[in-house]
Every structure is written in structure tokens, then in C-alpha cells.
Inverse folding.
């Protein structure tokens, strides 16, 4: 998922007019013409003009499916999934411009969804927590349509797509090892995105990760509290904090405790999502406080340079 600035460039990419051999096929659209990239971009930009101050108005989502699902995921099914995805993201498909295009340049089925972040009433479609919300919506769609869970085949598709930029640039054994470690960290992060929110303890998380080829190693302090957590995949060891701060031993334990506490009232995944939002708000408050402190430190210097004392009127 990406938020971009140019509808022109995005429409040219999804329609693949210069490379028709890639077999781009429009599956569904609302509020835009699909006969050419120029017309599609013009229609998007006409509505975007109602919010001229919104720089990044282009929401682009690539939805991919395992090659094993090729027979099941027909054009009709893809169109319905795109519609359900929009509704799951709280985007009104009847009051927002969008287009979904299927590409045939990979062995696995996949489609590209382009959405205008300015709806037909001139209101801005929120991008707050857009990536975490997208993961939750995709999980529900997988269950609803009986599809293979994406993270179970994520590594296979990543290898099919090709090396990461770091792997492609690696020229020495040390660089290659570092690039492979980075790939493992990405895979572990993807798996944790699906499993951590369902767990209420390190033991539950360990059991959820093992089928995905990931081991969890936990060290504890003398008082029994978690001291550190390491995830291992294909010989690569990654600290939880290297995957993301929310996956450090302490933050995971906090999440488990909150999931256990709220388990009777709500789904553990919702508890984890709330924890993530609380963390984001706390970081925002911390950044605001630091900015105010810095401003306060600079103010006396500014006053002195202007010839005024702190107590002057």
C-alpha cells in the first residue's frame, strides 16, 4: 500500500498502455473513465481539485493471491474483493472514485486498486493507521472467501518476485549475509503482524510462529519478567526490537497482559490494535512535548538577539 501524489503516473502504470503484452485488464471502476490513462487521471484530478492543499491524494493498493488460488480468484471474485476491501477500509465505494486493474505479468494473480482520497463530496479519506487497518481487512477477506492465509506463502512469493534491492546490490559474502538477514527480518515482521495480535502469552506466540518456520527464544530476569526476545528463521536471528519497537520483550508482554485483561470484553486482536493506537498517541504527545521544550530553550536566545530581556514588557 502506498499514498502517492500523481494520478497521471499511477494511471499509466496500472493500465500499462505502453506494454500491452502484460495484459492489464480493468475489472471494475467507479466515477472514472477507463478507456485511457489520460482520461482516468483527468477524472481523478477533477475531483481532487476540491482539496487543492492535499498533496498525496492517490491511494494505491496491490492485492496479491497465492498461485494455488489462480482458479478460484476469477475476475468476478477479484472485483467483489476490491469492493469488500473498500468497505472494510471505511471507504464508501459509491461516493468515491476508484478503479481496480488486474495484471498478468506474474504467475500469481494480483490486482491494483487506485482510490481518490478526495471523495465526491470533497471530503478527505483518512490515511490514519492505513497500513494496520489494511492488514486487518485482508485477514477478514481471507476468512470470508476461504483463501490461503497470505503470510503462509509470503516468503515463496517474495522469492518469485525476485531479490530485494539489498540482495541485488550485494557483491560480497558479508553483504549477501546482511541482505538475507534483512529478508528474514521482513518475513518475521510479516508473520508477527498476523500472529501477535492473536496471542495472550509468549507460549501462544511461539506455537503460532512455528508452522511458519520461525522460532521464538525468550530470556527472563531473576524476577521472572521478560528480558529479551529473539526470533530465528533459516539460521538468521533477529531481536524483537529490530523487527519493530512494539515487538520488544517488554512491549509484547504489555500487549499480552492487555489482551488477557480485555479478553472477556473484546477480541485479542482488537486489544492489540488499541494498544498500537495508544502507543502512537503517546509518541505524538512525547514529540509535542519535546518540540515545546526546544521552543522554550530557543526563546530566550531570540529575545536576547532582539535586545529584550526575559522580564521586559
Amino acid at each position: 500500500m502506498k499514498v502517492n501524489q500523481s494520478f497521471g503516473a499511477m494511471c499509466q502504470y496500472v493500465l500499462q498502455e505502453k506494454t500491452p503484452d502484460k495484459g492489464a485488464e480493468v475489472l471494475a471502476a467507479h466515477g472514472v473513465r477507463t478507456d485511457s490513462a489520460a482520461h482516468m487521471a483527468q477524472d481523478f484530478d477533477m475531483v481532487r481539485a476540491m482539496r487543492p492543499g492535499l498533496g498525496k491524494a492517490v491511494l494505491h493498493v496491490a492485492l496479491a493471491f497465492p498461485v494455488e488460488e489462480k482458479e478460484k480468484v476469477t475476475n468476478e471474485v477479484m472485483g467483489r474483493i476490491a469492493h469488500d476491501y473498500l468497505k472494510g477500509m471505511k471507504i464508501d465505494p459509491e461516493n468515491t472514485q476508484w478503479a481496480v486493474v488486474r495484471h498478468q505479468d506474474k504467475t500469481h494473480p494480483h490486482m491494483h486498486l487506485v482510490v481518490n482520497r478526495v471523495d465526491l463530496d470533497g471530503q478527505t479519506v483518512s490515511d490514519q493507521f492505513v497500513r494496520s487497518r489494511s492488514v486487518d481487512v485482508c485477514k477478514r477477506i481471507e476468512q470470508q472467501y476461504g483463501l490461503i492465509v497470505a503470510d503462509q506463502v509470503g516468503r515463496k512469493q517474495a522469492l518469485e518476485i525476485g531479490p530485494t534491492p539489498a540482495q541485488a546490490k550485494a557483491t560480497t559474502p558479508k553483504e549477501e549475509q546482511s541482505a538475507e538477514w534483512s529478508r528474514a527480518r521482513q518475513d518475521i515482521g510479516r508473520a508477527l503482524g498476523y500472529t501477535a495480535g492473536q496471542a495472550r502469552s509468549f507460549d501462544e506466540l511461539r506455537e503460532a510462529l512455528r508452522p511458519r518456520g520461525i522460532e521464538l527464544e525468550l530470556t527472563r530476569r531473576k524476577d521472572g519478567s521478560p528480558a529479551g526476545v529473539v526470533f530465528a528463521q533459516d539460521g538468521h536471528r533477529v531481536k524483537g526490537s529490530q523487527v519493530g519497537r512494539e515487538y520488544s520483550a517488554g512491549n509484547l508482554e504489555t500487549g499480552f497482559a492487555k489482551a488477557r485483561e480485555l479478553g472477556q470484553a473484546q477480541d485479542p486482536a482488537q486489544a492489540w490494535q488499541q494498544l498500537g493506537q495508544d502507543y502512537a498517541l503517546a509518541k505524538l504527545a512525547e514529540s509535542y512535548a519535546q518540540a515545546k521544550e526546544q521552543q522554550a530553550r530557543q526563546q530566550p536566545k531570540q529575545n536576547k538577539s532582539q535586545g529584550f530581556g526575559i522580564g521586559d514588557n
